[in-house]
Amino acid sequence: MTDRASCLVSKLGHYISLSEDDRQRLSTLEKSERSYGAGTDIYQMDDPCTDLFVVKQGWLFSYNDLPDGSRQIVKLHLPGDIIGFPDVSQKHVTSTLCAAEDVVLCPFPKTALDVILRDSPRLSALILSIALRDQIILLDLLRALGSMTARARISYMLLDLLARLKITNKGMSDVLRLPLNQSQIAAYVGLTNVYVSKTLSRMEKDGDIARTGNTVHLLRPEAMEEATDFRDRYSDMDIGWFPANKV
Amino acid sequence: MTDRASCLVSKLGHYISLSEDDRQRLSTLEKSERSYGAGTDIYQMDDPCTDLFVVKQGWLFSYNDLPDGSRQIVKLHLPGDIIGFPDVSQKHVTSTLCAAEDVVLCPFPKTALDVILRDSPRLSALILSIALRDQIILLDLLRALGSMTARARISYMLLDLLARLKITNKGMSDVLRLPLNQSQIAAYVGLTNVYVSKTLSRMEKDGDIARTGNTVHLLRPEAMEEATDFRDRYSDMDIGWFPANKV
DNA sequence: CGCGTTCGTTAAACTGTGTTAATCCACGTC
DNA sequence: GACGTGGATTAACACAGTTTAACGAACGCG
């Protein structure tokens, strides 16, 4: 195995051990990687859905513009994430993808799933599991947006991001680089930029967080977890039921 | 084929034509059906996750109690729906399931998925697609809760329910039986029962809806769709890429 | 160096929604 | 027929979060 393994292999290999066959299958699926500058819209809502992307570098987000002119960010994409999964079920993509900073993506065609489903039950189970886990996480976010205060929503967002970064980066401390401006944070948690500023300042004054530049330090993560009833869904996946591949 | 087909067969058969093999496979998975009275909690948050359920009759919802004492309903389950899918990825269920009225469910074990993934790529693709489509719908709901007014949220909910009922009931008119009280509606759309009442009254006065008992009549669905940017995700699934089963 | 741009902060006025609580109605029961 | 119960409605008041606007800091650029 060379070091420059495919994005997909290294992403999925985090969850289960992959057979050599599976590695082969995955790496042939991948097209050559692509870079985009900060702020570019990579695809637009209602474009035909052909490719998926693995994030190799940088943060992105998916958003929608609403009839009243406001914007809702529905998903943040971090390095290692697969982008566009839910849209596979639709003929057209349902949101616009935007690079929050300079990014590198590894695209692979939607039809790749066809091959995987046909040939590898074990990979299929993993992919299904990831899709389902993402759904759980959306449900968590729904709870947050549906009935939590501004402060709790922001806390929730920070805790979630930290948990996600810790998947691939075990020994990580509670410090977080946040390459999003406050308007983007607002669009994600359903507030205004003004109130995000006020809330972050208050959290800082109260000693919940510390800020320097665009990095945030969570000073009492346990207290925040309790206040928001946060659960880490990333570290707790059930992969026991996965089938072995046929011989 | 007898008329009393299994719940699963009739549910999944709505989307694609099933081979005789697939029908066999599905019907053996199913346990005997079970009934529950209105208001019963069928399973509780944090219970171990062993079974999935197909709804044969009646409405249900999944909810969570939040630290501040409020309650958030995260999903409404209508006849034909599969309940508990996202939880398959977790060791424990992430919400409590409650019967909104008298219901009949068809349980089948979580391990059934194992068999399907191993033996039927085509069914696997369908199941994956349904999971992904549900995720899209959650994203839609997220947009609604994140940045829409009370009125738009309720409109959104009504439109969504109508679209879902129309899947299995093609020629349906814009009339809807709503077996939920206003507190439950509130818990779903992130409002209070009082404000739901006020908003529904206002919508009725303005001629958007008409109410008699617990049925709601949507008087200008197109206007409501426009105001909320509603999209029907149910009628627009992409199943073209599904693999055929191996020979 | 001066200029424009973007972003974060702060303040004041405003508003949609929450809170609380009283009233009413429909319905079932003894 | 009296009573209890659950749900819907209404009104008065409180408040979390929005809107608008102004200002300052940091940065890139000609």
TrEMBL record, chains A, B:
<keyword id="KW-0804">Transcription</keyword>
<dbReference type="GO" id="GO:0005829">
    <property type="term" value="C:cytosol"/>
</dbReference>
<dbReference type="Pfam" id="PF13545">
    <property type="entry name" value="HTH_Crp_2"/>
</dbReference>
<dbReference type="GO" id="GO:0003700">
    <property type="term" value="F:DNA-binding transcription factor activity"/>
</dbReference>
<dbReference type="GO" id="GO:0003677">
    <property type="term" value="F:DNA binding"/>
</dbReference>
<feature type="domain" description="HTH crp-type">
    <location>
        <begin position="148"/>
        <end position="222"/>
    </location>
</feature>
<protein>
    <recommendedName>
        <fullName>HTH crp-type domain-containing protein</fullName>
    </recommendedName>
</protein>
<dbReference type="InterPro" id="IPR050397">
    <property type="entry name" value="Env_Response_Regulators"/>
</dbReference>
<dbReference type="Pfam" id="PF00027">
    <property type="entry name" value="cNMP_binding"/>
</dbReference>
<dbReference type="InterPro" id="IPR012318">
    <property type="entry name" value="HTH_CRP"/>
</dbReference>
<keyword id="KW-0238">DNA-binding</keyword>
<dbReference type="InterPro" id="IPR018490">
    <property type="entry name" value="cNMP-bd_dom_sf"/>
</dbReference>
<keyword id="KW-0805">Transcription regulation</keyword>
<dbReference type="InterPro" id="IPR036388">
    <property type="entry name" value="WH-like_DNA-bd_sf"/>
</dbReference>
<dbReference type="InterPro" id="IPR014710">
    <property type="entry name" value="RmlC-like_jellyroll"/>
</dbReference>
<dbReference type="InterPro" id="IPR000595">
    <property type="entry name" value="cNMP-bd_dom"/>
</dbReference>
<dbReference type="InterPro" id="IPR036390">
    <property type="entry name" value="WH_DNA-bd_sf"/>
</dbReference>
